[in-house]
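<discrete_fold_record>
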Amino acid sequence: MLFEILLLPLFLFVLLLLLTGMAIAMTFVIAAAEIDLSVGSIAGLSSVVTAITVTNFGLVPGILAGLASGAVIGAVNGGLVALLNIPSFLVTLGMLGLAAGIAQWITGSAPQPITDDVYVMIFGGGDFGPVPGLLVWTAVIVALGHSFFTLSLGMGAIMAYGAYMPAGQPLGQTVLIVGFVDTLVALVAGLVIFPIVFTHGLEPGAGPGLMFQTLPVALGALPGGVVIGTVFFVLVLIAAWSSAISIAEPAVAWAVEKGFSRARATVFVCSLAWALGLGTVFSFNDWSQNQAFVTVTELNEAGDAVGSEFYLYAAVDDLKKAKEVTGGTYEIKGKTLFDIFDFLTTNILLPLGGVLIALFTGWFMSRSSVEDEARLASQHLFAVWRFMIRFVSPAAILLVLYNGLF
């Protein structure tokens, strides 16, 4: 047990090096003015290939098979982009779904167990003192992912705010204050909302919608709760409106730099967002049966998966009718347009934007420019921050990206 605990820092260091390698590889993609949305799916497929090969042929063949599968898929992506001039966004978006589908087909949607003792101790059934290891890793990854939403990281909104800050404002101090206040408000909100959730038997995993379920219950029990609730949700509307403005501002500012007037740019960006929003609304009614990346899993009497099929696009109702004719029990899962937008923004674009910002700041901006803007207290503190932004932050964000994809 002591030996395994001593191995933990070394294991984490190796993991950090691997993730940093992925970050550096992404730097070359960015430097070529391209994008790769399929990196998470390729990593998942390579992991599946490695796990199966290790089980049947040993460790070294498993590692080689995993590397080979990733290299082959990367070569296919590169060939389609370089030789056929297909935009990398379309190629890697298609490969994202294809790689995930192949992984599900190979495994039959069944989990691939890992029996290595050290791995299981750290990421499986082991404990960090009195705290279960799985709980620790889940809390870390969820906290990292939550930061992208609550601090608007990776979507350009923070850059919009920063672009209009006074020239003499110290960015380092401002970042610390914003992060501290945001965390404090989130903790207070959690302490207010979740007791109400559990008291009234509401679903704690409902996400942001909890605000529209729990607060009406709490405010309704107060004297004058109708008035207080009305004022509160008017303020929520204003907050949502201001957030929408900050999110639209990067696109509007870019259009203005390209020669559009601010009025025309604002109308165009907001109209486009509204049109895309209508597509997400239709996903809950008229378009709900038209889904992409559809997986059909055949289940036995015990409810275990015994086979699977993958469709890039399918009409779910027609697919259900066809399976009813053949008999058996099937589980059909796909993504509506809303699900695709939610998946792309939450699991890909936000973390990917964070990676790009970190890589740009750490590797492409000059040290003197960053140092002048940050205005940190000492050179040692700046050196630590620069190391974090160049290596640790991209690796941590890639971990969030991988967790979101799988």
User: Anything to note?
Assistant: Confidence is low (pLDDT under 50) at residues 1-14. The first helix runs from residue 2 to 31. The chain has 15 helices and five strands.
